Amino acid sequence: MMEGCEYAISNAEAFAERLSRELQVLDGANIQSIMASEKQVNILMKLLDEALKEVDQIELKLSSYEEMLQSVKEQMDQISESNHLIHLSNTNNVKLLSEIEFLVNHMDLAKGHIKALQEGDLASSRGIEACTNAADALLQCMNVALRPGHDMLLAVKQQQQRFSDLREHFARRLASHLNNVFVQQFTQALLQLYNRSYFLSVPGHDQSSTLAQHSVELTLPNHHPFHRDLLRYAKLMEWLKSTDYGKYEGLTKNYMDYLSRLYEREIKDFFEVAKIKMTGTTKESKKFATLPRKESAVKQETESLHGSSGKLTGSTSSLNKLSVQSSGNRRSQSSSLLDMGNMSASDLDVADRTKFDKIFEQVLSELEPLCLAEQDFISKFFKLQQHQSMPGTMTEAEDLDGGMSSRQHNAGTPLPVSSEKDMIRQMMIKIFRCIEPELNNLIALGDKIDSFNSLYMLVKMSHHVWTAQNVDPASFLSTTLGNVLVTVKRNFDKCISNQIRQMEEVKISKKSKVGILPFVAEFEEFAGLAESIFKNAERRGDLDKAYTKLIRGVFVNVEKVANESQKTPRDVVMMENFHHIFATLSRLKISCLEAEKKEAKQKYTDHLQSYVIYSLGQPLEKLNHFFEGVEARVAQGIREEEVSYQLAFNKQELRKVIKEYPGKEVKKGLDNLYKKVDKHLCEEENLLQVVWHSMQDEFIRQYKHFEGLIARCYPGSGVTMEFTIQDILDYCSSIAQSH
C-alpha cells in the first residue's frame, strides 16, 4: 500500500483521506454481505433451538439413567459388603481348621501308643521299642508349643491332663520294672557268688589248691551281659530323666545301692584271692568267703529284695543286712592276712618278686576295664555327659528339653553338664567305694611280704595313673589310682628311710673281721633290682632321689663303721666296701651317681695306698727308722754326703741295720705280712692279690728309695742291701703261690 502511494510520506493527509474512503467502501460491502446471510442465520438459530430441545431430552434420559445407576450402586455396595463378610468367614474357617488340625496333629496320641504306655511289655525287645516310640510321641505331644489361647480350651486342658496321667502311669510302671531288673541282676550275681563260696567251703576241700585252680586267671566277673540288657532301656531312661526327674533320681540311687554291694562282694573276693596267691599259703581254719547259706536262704533274700522293689524307694533292709554280714566277714579275713608275720627279703628270690609283680599288674589290669566299662555304662544308661560340650551347641537331651515350659508336676530339674560330670564321679565313688581301701590293704600286704615290692608297685601304679590321666584326668579311675599312688610313694619313701635307718643301726662283731657291710650288699641288691624295674619307667626321678639319699647314707655309715672297727683296720673296711660300691656303680651304669662312683673309686684308691704303706712299715721296721733319721738330718740342713759322719748314722750303723735284714729274714717278714693281710681281707671281695701286688710295688719303691739314699749319703762305701729287686719279686711270687 505504501508502495502504491508514493506520496504517503510526502503528503500524509492525502494518504489518510484515501484510507478513510477505502474503509467506508469495505464497511458497506460488509453490511451488504451480512444482509445477504440473514436467512442462513435464521436457519442456524432454528437448528440451535432444535439442538437445545435434544439436549433437554438427553438430560432427562441421563437423569433417568443416573437414578438407575444409583440403584445399581446401592446393590453393588450391598454385594461388596456381603462378599467381604463371606471372605472373612472363609478366612476364619481356614484359620480355625488350621488350629484344629494343629491340635489334632500335635496333641493326638495314637491308640497303639496309649496301649503301649498303659500295658506294653517292658521285658521284650519289641515291647521296649514300642514303649520307647510311644514315650517319645507322648513327650512330643506334651512339649508342643501351644499358641496363645490354646491353653484356655477345655479340650486342650482335658488332653493335657490325660497326657499327664499317662506320663505319671508309665513313669511309675517303668521305674518299678527297672527296679525289678536291678534286683534280679543283683540276685543272680549274688547267687553265683554264694555257689562259689559254697564250693570253696565244702569240708575236705584243700583251700589253697581249690583257690589256685578256681582263680588261675585272677579275673573279676564280667558285667557286660547286665549292661547289655539294661542299655535297651537307655532311651526310656532319657525320657524319664526329662519328664520325671524324681523317679529318675530314685532309680539312680537304687542302682548305686545294689551295685555297690555287688561290687563290694566281687572285689573283696578278688582281692582275697590275690592276697592268697601273693602269700602262697592259707590257714586251714581260714575261710576264703563267707559261710555258705542254703538255697532256701538265698531264695528268701531274693524274695525280700523283690518285695521291696514294688516301690521305687522301698526298704532295702534285707539287702543291707546281707551286705553287712558279708563285709564283716571280709574285714576279718583281710585283717587275718595282714596279721601274718613279716617275711625277710633275703628269703625271697627273684621268682617270688616276679610273681608278686605279675599278680599286682593283673589286679590293676582287671580293675581298670571294670571301672571304665561301668563308667561308660553309667554315662550311656543314665544319659550323663562325660565331656563338656562346646559353647553354643545343644546336646540331644537339651534339644528334647527345649519345650519344657508347659511341663507340669516335674519332680526335679536336669543337671547342667558340669554337674552331670560330678554326678558320674559321685556314682562311681559310691559304687566302687571299696576299691581304694582294698588296694591299700593289698599294698600293705605286699610291703609286709617284702619292702622291695614297693618298687614294683610304684612303677606299675605310676604307669596306670599316667594312662588313666591321659584318658580323663578328672575321672574316678584317675583320681582313685592317684590317691593309691600317694600311698605307694609313701611306702617307697618309707622303704628308703628304713634302709638308711638300718645302716645307722648296724652293729659289727668285735671278734670277727668286718668284710663287706650288710647295707653295702643291700644297696647293691636294691640298685640291681631297681634298675631292672625302673627301666623306661615314668617316675625315674623318684628313684634318682632315692639313690642320692641311699648312697649318701652308705658313704657316711661305711666311714662310721670303719672308725668303730677294732678287729679290722679302718683302711681295710674303707677299701673293701668302697671297692664294692665302685664295682656296683660301674656295672649298673647309674647316670645320676657318676659323681659318687668317682668318689668311691678315689676313696678305695686312697685307703688301699694308706693300708699298703702302713703295713709295709712293719717288716723292715728298723731299716725304716734308720732312713727316716737320715732324711730328718738332711731336712735339718746337713748335706747328704756328710750324714755318714754322724755317729748314729755312720757306715757301721748302716751295715749293722742292713745285716738284720738278710734275704731269708725279708722273705719271712713278707710271708708274715701276707698272712696278716689275708686275715684282714674278706674272701668275697677278692682283693688279696690286688693288695699284695700293690705292696710288692710299694716295697720295690721303698727299696729303690733306700738304695738312692745309700748312694747319695754313703758314696763309695760299697754298702748294699743283702737282697735285690729280683729277690723281692721272687719272694712275693713264691709267697703268693704257696698260699
UniProtKB/TrEMBL annotation:
<comment type="similarity">
    <text>Belongs to the SEC3 family.</text>
</comment>
<feature type="coiled-coil region">
    <location>
        <begin position="34"/>
        <end position="82"/>
    </location>
</feature>
<dbReference type="GO" id="GO:0005546">
    <property type="term" value="F:phosphatidylinositol-4,5-bisphosphate binding"/>
</dbReference>
<dbReference type="Pfam" id="PF09763">
    <property type="entry name" value="Sec3_CC"/>
</dbReference>
<dbReference type="InterPro" id="IPR048628">
    <property type="entry name" value="Sec3_C"/>
</dbReference>
<keyword id="KW-0813">Transport</keyword>
<feature type="domain" description="Exocyst complex component Sec3 coiled-coil">
    <location>
        <begin position="12"/>
        <end position="143"/>
    </location>
</feature>
<feature type="region of interest" description="Disordered">
    <location>
        <begin position="285"/>
        <end position="340"/>
    </location>
</feature>
<dbReference type="GO" id="GO:0000145">
    <property type="term" value="C:exocyst"/>
</dbReference>
<protein>
    <submittedName>
        <fullName>Exocyst complex component 1 isoform X8</fullName>
    </submittedName>
</protein>
<keyword id="KW-0175">Coiled coil</keyword>
<keyword id="KW-0268">Exocytosis</keyword>
<feature type="compositionally biased region" description="Basic and acidic residues">
    <location>
        <begin position="285"/>
        <end position="304"/>
    </location>
</feature>
<feature type="compositionally biased region" description="Low complexity">
    <location>
        <begin position="305"/>
        <end position="336"/>
    </location>
</feature>
<feature type="domain" description="Exocyst complex component Sec3 C-terminal">
    <location>
        <begin position="421"/>
        <end position="716"/>
    </location>
</feature>
<dbReference type="GO" id="GO:0006893">
    <property type="term" value="P:Golgi to plasma membrane transport"/>
</dbReference>
<dbReference type="GO" id="GO:0006887">
    <property type="term" value="P:exocytosis"/>
</dbReference>
<dbReference type="Pfam" id="PF20654">
    <property type="entry name" value="Sec3_C-term"/>
</dbReference>
<feature type="region of interest" description="Disordered">
    <location>
        <begin position="393"/>
        <end position="417"/>
    </location>
</feature>
<dbReference type="InterPro" id="IPR019160">
    <property type="entry name" value="Sec3_CC"/>
</dbReference>
<dbReference type="GO" id="GO:0005886">
    <property type="term" value="C:plasma membrane"/>
</dbReference>
